[in-house]
Design a protein that fits this description.
The complex is a heterodimer. Chain A contains eight helices and eight strands. By secondary structure, chain A is α/β, with parallel strands linked by helices. Chain A is globular and about 40 Å long. The longest helix of chain B is centred in the last third of the chain and has 16 residues. Chain B is globular and about 40 Å long. The relative contact order of chain B is 0.20. The chains are: A alpha/beta, B alpha/beta. At the A-B interface, helix 3, helix 5 and helix 8 of A face helix 3 and helix 4 of B. The complex binds thiamine diphosphate and magnesium ion. The site of magnesium ion has 8 residues of chain A, from helix 4 and strand 5.
């Protein structure tokens, strides 16, 4: 499956959840397929989508919160997985689009080709983890995890598929903040 | 010396209600008080930039966050401050201990102690060096900046707070 196909499967499953996106390709793909006010597009601060998502989740315990992360981003802030496990927000689903490369900067390999990020999450204490490799598996895996008490991690193994023509997020960072906060209410 | 208890009560009275950071001995009393009180939830971070992210998320979800850290963590945070807080207008109150002030400290603190103010200035991060005389005024200034969506740092020298160990 291509990265884009993973987004095509996930996006229709979203309802009112705040979704914090990792930088690079992740933001751009999601934005271009379907822009949502509840999407936080983190265009800089590589590695911090997970901690931002954790901050939202613990502050809004009754609101299911989703992080869409990249393997390079997760590897940069692997300690945040421990923070998530320790804070244990039941309402947090951490999705990782794992293409085993830093796709946004030219497909240099990441360590996730030899390090299983779902195993890392499991061993630090995420309550549920799942790995999918086929797009047909995404919907049921997502529904299973979103219905359980987290923190959960859904690792989606994809092939690199970034099209350089995919446009950048065209909201300003300030607009992203204000619309996200408004959507969260 | 200011009592950490009084300072934590002051923070609460100003509306701060979310805390994260990485410990410094100079802030140990303050962190203990925050951590012990369920009214002032303190989320330990593994590194200072992760605390910046955590505080940013909390702010987006309606909290007023405080980040407690040693100046040695400033380098880790610069990318987060410049490519998240400053451009997204996501404020945070940073309480940063100043190790290496006046060139008197363990060797690992000397260089950062000398340059931390310049680093903050260069990054466009406003700050005050707080003292017994100006801490309330500095906190009000910080609140003003936070209302404008900007992060603000209170630099705290050795001996300002009572230590908790
Ligand atoms: C601190 C920092 N280092 C490097 C970069 C350059 N950079 C932008 S996106 C990216 C790759 C992100 O990798 P991953 O999370 O796997 O997402 P992918 O691009 O594969 O979708 C890199 C290295 C950056 N933005 N910030
Ligand atoms: Mg990747």
């Amino acid at each position: 499956m291509k990265g884009t196909e993973a987004f095509e499967e996930i996006i229709p499953l979203l309802t009112d959840e705040p979704v914090i996106h990792a930088n690079g390709f992740i933001c751009r793909e999601s934005f271009n397929l379907k822009d949502r006010e509840g999407n936080f597009y983190m265009i800089g601060s590589m590695g911090l989508a997970s901690s931002i998502g954790l901050g939202v989740a613990v502050s809004r315990p009754d609101q299911k919160t989703i992080i869409i992360d990249g393997d390079g981003n997760v590897l940069m802030s692997m300690g945040t997985l421990a923070m998530i496990a320790a804070a244990a927000p039941r309402n947090l689903l951490h999705i990782v689009i794992d293409n085993e490369v830093y796709e946004s900067t030219g497909r240099q390999g990441t360590l996730s080709s030899s390090v299983a990020l779902d195993d890392v999450a499991k061993s630090v204490g995420y309550t549920h983890t799942k790995r999918v490799t086929e797009k047909e598996q995404i919907k049921s895996a997502y529904q299973e995890l979103i219905g359980k008490e987290g923190p959960s991690l859904l690792l989606i193994k994809v092939e690199p598929s970034f099209d350089k023509a995919t446009g950048r997020v065209h909201h300003t960072p300030e607009e992203i903040t204000s619309r996200f906060m408004k959507a969260l209410g | 010396m200011l009592s950490s208890k009084i300072f934590s009560e002051l923070l609460s009275s100003k509306g701060f209600n979310f805390y994260s950071g990485v410990p410094c001995s100079l802030l140990s009393g303050l962190i203990r008080i925050l951590d012990d009180d369920p009214q002032t939830p303190y989320y330990p971070a593994v590194r200072e930039d992760a605390a910046v992210g955590l505080c940013a998320g909390a702010y987006l979800a309606g909290k007023l966050p405080v980040l407690l850290m040693q100046n040695s963590g400033l380098g880790y945070c610069l990318n987060a401050f410049t490519s998240l807080n400053l451009i997204y207008k996501i404020p945070v109150l940073v309480v940063m201990s100043w190790r290496g002030e006046d060139g008197k400290d363990a060797p690992e603190h000397i260089i950062m102690g000398e340059i931390n103010q310049q680093l903050l200035q260069t990054a466009g991060m406003e700050y005050s060096v707080i003292s017994a005389d100006n801490y309330e005024e500095s906190l009000d200034k910080a609140l003003q900046k936070i209302k404008e969506g900007l992060p603000y740092t209170l630099l705290v020298g050795k001996g300002f707070f009572d230590e908790g160990h």
